[in-house]
């Protein structure tokens, strides 16, 4: 396992400097949560780490390195906001889309190896949806859809997982359940999770950072006590949540 | 219940039009060389079934060939526009030109170049269909949900695989609306072509019948044309719904 380091990274869309001179480390096997209000640049930062900003009108500075010396590209799994499932593909086809995207077969439906199929079914079992393998995403609830997205992320089996508000569109109870499930299934992976929900960051993060300002800056890390997913009856957690909510609300009113 | 009613509705409209037609002709005593009554048109359709069928086949063939080629060229144009960015400034005006010149104005030229056979009608149809198909498909391909493209890129998909597995299927609902338009306008190309100059087809038959004041035959040909067009539309619509069962766009 390896740590991921961001060295003095910055990004600008034309004249809009979203952030600059940011330093951040993602510790191996831990969850790093980034909290911030909407429009502050969370998605932009995550896409930059994922190597997804290559358009000509975007200026990128700084470096992203791994402390084992290998590049990060090809070692990340990406899980984004709602609607990330392909609506024309069955649950099973959605989970295995990466495998099919990587086969170099030119024409015809590239057949999956039986090993890959078994693995996909196993992932579906892990998220409790094995009976939905042949169903289209439109016939699933929001929570079920994100469980499929989680299964797809697991299927990719990459050491680093980048998540952009993966549970943002879910109701409170479903969100808590999915947080627990993700914590359990992604144990051992290096996770960077972006959220606007302080409680989510505090429950899941080994380290929690707050991204704020224009250009955006990172605050010092908050390291809530206890193992993740932290339970809600922790008084310290609730106090921290109150502090962070206040800060976020203050930002919104200034902006 | 509501599904059965959906099939019933067009049928009721059709019967309503027939009744209104018959009522007007009988009630206002319109002379039969201006508007024949539905019954005599129907009789003509039965007595001249062979003739109508023969000419309908020609028109349908022109429409279907025009549709096939038009859709093919339209999709190729859309793919070129999306993947060869440097060609875009040259191709976009060309695309507009095919639309700016009315096909009616081109018809005589096409007759001159491609003769009075089916080729000129097929080309007319292609010219009409090309634009809606190309623009809809282009829009569909361009508006692929960024999240899916991000996902495909982090998964390490090559550009061909991404086109085949992500961009193309995501463009299908847009392409389908282009196809629905194409199917509706296809008969215009074929029939206008036949009017300008031909020796077969429903448009030709209508001109001939008109010249000889066989108004009932003319209306019979018109009815057959309408049936072909409407049939083609419903068939296409059904096929597209079958092939593209997922809900269209939600953002
Ligand atoms: N492709 C883009 N081109 C120009 N500006 C963008 C682009 N994407 C995002 N932005 C701008 O960058 C800022 C940060 O956006 P984003 O990273 O999506 O914020 P967040 O995820 O924190 O809500 C916003 O002001 C947004 O308008
Ligand atoms: Mg965002």
From TrEMBL, chain A:
Single Gene Ontology MF annotation: ATP binding
PROSITE patterns: ABC_TRANSPORTER_1 (PS00211), ABC_TRANSPORTER_2 (PS50893)
Keyword Lipid metabolism among UniProt keywords: no
Keyword Hydrolase on entry: yes
SMART domains xref list: AAA
EC code(s) of this entry: 3.6.3.-
Every ABC transporter domain range: 4-238
Assigned keywords, A-Z: ATP-binding, Hydrolase, Nucleotide-binding, Transport
A Pfam cross-reference name: ABC_tran
Membrane-spanning parts: none
UniProt record similarity statement: Belongs to the ABC transporter superfamily.
Protein name per UniProt: Aliphatic sulfonates import ATP-binding protein SsuB
Taxonomic lineage from the root: Bacteria, Pseudomonadati, Pseudomonadota, Gammaproteobacteria, Oceanospirillales
Name of the encoding gene: ssuB
UniProtKB/TrEMBL annotation, chain B:
Membrane topology: Multi-pass membrane protein
UniProt KW keywords: Cell membrane, Membrane, Transmembrane, Transmembrane helix, Transport
Membrane-spanning parts: 63-85, 92-116, 122-141, 172-193, 213-235
Superkingdom of source: Bacteria
Any GO BP: transmembrane transport
Family matches, as SUPFAM superfamilies: MetI-like
Domain (ABC transmembrane type-1) ranges: 52-236
Record-level GO cellular component terms: plasma membrane
Main location: membrane
InterPro entries (UniProt xref): MetI-like, MetI-like_sf
Pfam annotation, one family: BPD_transp_1
The name this protein goes by in its record: Putative aliphatic sulfonates transport permease protein SsuC
Organism per entry: Parendozoicomonas haliclonae
Gene encoding the protein: ssuC
């Amino acid at each position: 396992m390896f740590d991921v380091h961001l060295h003095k990274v910055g990004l600008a869309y034309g004249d809009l400097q979203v952030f600059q001179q940011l330093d951040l480390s993602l510790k191996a096997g831990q969850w790093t949560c980034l909290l911030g209000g909407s429009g502050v640049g969370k998605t932009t930062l995550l896409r930059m780490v994922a190597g997804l900003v290559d358009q000509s009108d975007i200026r990128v500075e700084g470096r992203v390195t791994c402390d084992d010396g290998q590049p990060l590209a090809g070692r990340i799994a990406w899980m984004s906001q709602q609607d990330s499932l392909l609506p024309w593909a069955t649950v099973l086809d959605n989970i295995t889309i990466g495998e099919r995207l990587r086969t170099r077969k030119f024409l015809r439906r590239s057949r999956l190896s039986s090993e890959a199929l078994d693995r996909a079914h196993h992932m579906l079992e892990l998220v409790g949806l094995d009976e939905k393998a042949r169903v289209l995403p439109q016939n699933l609830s929001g929570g079920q859809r994100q469980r499929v997205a989680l299964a797809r992320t697991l299927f990719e089996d990459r050491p680093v997982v980048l998540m952009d508000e993966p549970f943002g569109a879910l109701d409170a109870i479903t969100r808590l359940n999915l947080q627990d499930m993700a914590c359990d299934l992604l144990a051992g992976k290096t996770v960077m999770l972006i959220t606007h929900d302080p409680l989510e960051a505090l429950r899941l993060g080994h380290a929690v950072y707050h991204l704020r300002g224009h250009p955006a800056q990172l605050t010092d890390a908050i390291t809530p006590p206890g193992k993740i997913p932290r339970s809600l009856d922790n008084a310290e957690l609730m106090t921290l949540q109150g502090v962070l909510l206040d800060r976020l609300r203050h930002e919104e009113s200034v902006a | 219940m509501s599904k059965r009613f959906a099939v019933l509705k067009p049928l009721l409209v059709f019967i309503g039009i027939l009744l209104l037609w018959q009522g007007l002709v009988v009630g206002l005593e319109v002379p039969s060389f201006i508007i024949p009554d539905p019954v005599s048109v129907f009789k003509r359709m039965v007595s001249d079934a062979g003739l109508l069928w023969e000419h309908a086949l020609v028109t349908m063939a022109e429409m279907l060939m025009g549709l096939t080629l038009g859709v093919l060229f339209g999709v190729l144009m859309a793919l070129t526009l999306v993947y060869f960015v440097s060609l875009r400034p040259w191709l976009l005006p060309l695309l507009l030109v095919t639309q700016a010149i009315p096909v009616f104005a081109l018809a005589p030229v096409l007759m001159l170049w491609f003769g009075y056979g089916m080729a000129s009608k097929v080309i007319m149809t292609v010219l009409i269909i090309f634009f809606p198909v190309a623009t809809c498909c282009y829009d569909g391909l361009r508006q692929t949900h960024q999240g899916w493209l991000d996902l495909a890129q982090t998964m390490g998909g090559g550009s061909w695989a991404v086109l085949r597995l992500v961009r193309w299927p995501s463009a299908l609902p847009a392409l389908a609306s282009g196809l629905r338009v194409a199917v509706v306008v296809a008969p215009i190309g074929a029939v206008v072509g036949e009017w300008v100059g031909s020796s077969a087809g429903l448009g030709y038959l209508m001109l001939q019948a008109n010249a000889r004041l066989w108004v009932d035959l003319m209306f019979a040909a018109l009815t057959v044309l309408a049936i072909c067009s409407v049939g083609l539309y419903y068939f296409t619509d059904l096929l597209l719904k079958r092939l593209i069962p997922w809900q269209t766009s939600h953002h």
